[in-house]
UniProtKB/TrEMBL annotation, chain A:
<dbReference type="InterPro" id="IPR033248">
    <property type="entry name" value="Transketolase_C"/>
</dbReference>
<protein>
    <recommendedName>
        <fullName>3-methyl-2-oxobutanoate dehydrogenase (2-methylpropanoyl-transferring)</fullName>
        <ecNumber>1.2.4.4</ecNumber>
    </recommendedName>
</protein>
<dbReference type="Pfam" id="PF02780">
    <property type="entry name" value="Transketolase_C"/>
</dbReference>
<dbReference type="Pfam" id="PF02779">
    <property type="entry name" value="Transket_pyr"/>
</dbReference>
<dbReference type="InterPro" id="IPR005475">
    <property type="entry name" value="Transketolase-like_Pyr-bd"/>
</dbReference>
<feature type="domain" description="Transketolase-like pyrimidine-binding">
    <location>
        <begin position="4"/>
        <end position="180"/>
    </location>
</feature>
<dbReference type="InterPro" id="IPR009014">
    <property type="entry name" value="Transketo_C/PFOR_II"/>
</dbReference>
<keyword id="KW-0786">Thiamine pyrophosphate</keyword>
<dbReference type="InterPro" id="IPR029061">
    <property type="entry name" value="THDP-binding"/>
</dbReference>
Automatic annotation (TrEMBL), chain B:
<comment type="function">
    <text>The branched-chain alpha-keto dehydrogenase complex catalyzes the overall conversion of alpha-keto acids to acyl-CoA and CO(2). It contains multiple copies of three enzymatic components: branched-chain alpha-keto acid decarboxylase (E1), lipoamide acyltransferase (E2) and lipoamide dehydrogenase (E3).</text>
</comment>
<dbReference type="InterPro" id="IPR029061">
    <property type="entry name" value="THDP-binding"/>
</dbReference>
<protein>
    <recommendedName>
        <fullName>2-oxoisovalerate dehydrogenase subunit alpha</fullName>
        <ecNumber>1.2.4.4</ecNumber>
    </recommendedName>
</protein>
<dbReference type="InterPro" id="IPR050771">
    <property type="entry name" value="Alpha-ketoacid_DH_E1_comp"/>
</dbReference>
<comment type="similarity">
    <text>Belongs to the BCKDHA family.</text>
</comment>
<feature type="domain" description="Dehydrogenase E1 component">
    <location>
        <begin position="58"/>
        <end position="353"/>
    </location>
</feature>
<keyword id="KW-0560">Oxidoreductase</keyword>
<keyword id="KW-0786">Thiamine pyrophosphate</keyword>
<dbReference type="Pfam" id="PF00676">
    <property type="entry name" value="E1_dh"/>
</dbReference>
Amino acid sequence: MPKMNMLQAINEALTIAMETDERMLVFGEDVGHFGGVFRATSGLQDKFGRERCFNTPLTEQGIAGFANGLASNGMTPVAEIQFADYIFPAFDQIVNESAKFRYRSGNEFDVGGLTFRTPYGGGIAGGHYHSQSPEAYFTGTPGLKVVVPRNPHQAKGLLLASIRDKNPVVFFEPKRLYRASVGEVPEGDYEIELGKAEVVAQGSDITLLGWGAQMEIIEQAAEMAAKENISCEVIDLRSLAPWDVDTVAESVRKTGRLLVNHEAPLTGGFAGEIAATIQQECFLYLEAPIARVCGLDTPYPLCHEKEYMPDALKTFEAIKATMNY
Amino acid sequence: MSNATQKDERQTLVHRVNFIEGNALSIPILKILQADGTTYEGAIEPTIDQQLALKIYDTCVFTRVLDERMLGAQRQGRISFYMTCTGEEAAVIGSAAGLDQEDVILAQYREHAALRYRGFTTEQFMNQMFSNALDLGKGRQMPIHYGCADLHYQTISSPLATQIPQATGVGYSLKMQGKRNVAICYFGEGAASEGDFHAGLNMAAVHKAPVIFFCRNNGYAISTPTEEQFAGDGIASRGVGYGMHTIRIDGNDMLAVLAATQQARAYALEHKAPVLIEAMTYRLGAHSSSDDPSGYRSKEEEAKWREHDPVQRFKLWLINKGWLKEADDAALYEKYRQEVLDQVKVSEKIPCPSLDELIEDVLDTPTPALKQQLAELKAHIKKYPKAYPKTSGRD
């Protein structure tokens, strides 16, 4: 299998999807000739023409509304929001329109062909507005799917599945890994099923759950724990909405302990939803309270970024505290 | 003028279908200063004396030097990010010079020259860029996100156009408070595509807020050229649609910018109403230190615009006036190069704000839950001091 970084894998997925679906369009700020500020859409305009891959004016609400209109009329729009921090002008179009198009019309209309791609997350010295992880604003909205890949292989398969899914999908890309994550990626067309978590490493003492860029952090913490003879089962949730309760619950019934890690602030983060569901599903199996290792309840800071992040050391400490509860 | 409301009976009626062309309105560009530093025949200079002119020029030189040095510092890895104002100094400084010191500035992010004009010190610039303990913004935002209440310059927020409707609110509040001040709102032609632009200008016109909306039409929104940004006659034509006093000017012409801003300010105060200024200019540098313009525009195009250097044009005017000598100019550059270099060395050694600052200002007082999070963080750092070198061992 060829090795590539996450941007190349995303670019391949977009290319394949455009080749296999002539109704598919790719658009957003700077995505045309320039290929996007991260170059995820590099070469698409040359290959598919300006009518199918183009720059939009600088308006996220316009991009999202335009995408809704295209999807409602049978097209397959893949819209890029340049940074997840800038998705909020589009919030109304996504939350009130994309998410409710099918339901409000009694399935007379839908925008199922729609996918939003947007880079999220910190660790790049991006301060308040180039670092946020806003996934929980969207997981709290019925009618949307929310997907986050952890590496190039996953990114290609999950993006192809998201584009072809018959529901609007918000696809969060961990920008910290865009170039940093390099791995083998299968050639050609393949999809990874949405709504399914993946057990990345088997273990018996505690289940560590995360998604996106934090999977690397969790795996580092699991290695540290292994040196202290703690056996961690590591799960990548991959889809946050809908999320794979069965796989997580099955793991927790085995290990008796759960730790959830995400970059977004603790309060109102998606870990809270997971913890509530798992205590319901696995109450009599739990040996310790479900641990959450998350960002602090502050805006994403610049100079204290390292201190703010739910890093491997904090995760390792939480693993030990859960084991010793 | 008729007003397209149901109550207005003065509207002109026609009885045949007759569309108005999308390009029917073509707004001229005000130019006062020629490339050789002389003024156009018949042009009227703004109110400007030697002292004001030299203060403007001093700010130009400082900004050039700051941009050159700090982009270099970013390339050396000393700061994480930078954005230059190069090529747009006349638009920013000429407008700042047309204001009162207490007029409120709401900038986009490329207007640090206006802050300098107001009196922001070299030390204050450096402390922000190095995110150190003396930064007014407490090290929380990326470099160039300045703000200073004393200088009536609201803190920069990276999301585009959010400051536009806010400026309307600020302007309206100045009117309510009976102050003889206006708000000025800077933004680019790209940001003018955001919904906030429409919301802000429409509300300002309807509610009669004394605001100068100052658009820097610099040709590009990152890589996107103006022809992919809008199809009409620029940004100025929209002002007319909002029923707003509007002008288009050469943004590289210091005297045109100053004259337009002085008169816009007087109008805004007298009529308690907004004004739109569209300054035609060119972003000579990259969008930011993360950008490489060679991917979307030619060297020839950049070279052509370098010939329209706003600082050079204004300098020639000063020399023609006998207000500046070449030798003084060279000394000014040298003075600021040294000053910036010296301050870099000082500011980069000042530590980052203490960990306690991390939880301040989220609300007016930290919640008990947040204090608990900080206590846990401090205990964690005490356990692993080497992993957190910026904050360990400090309390």
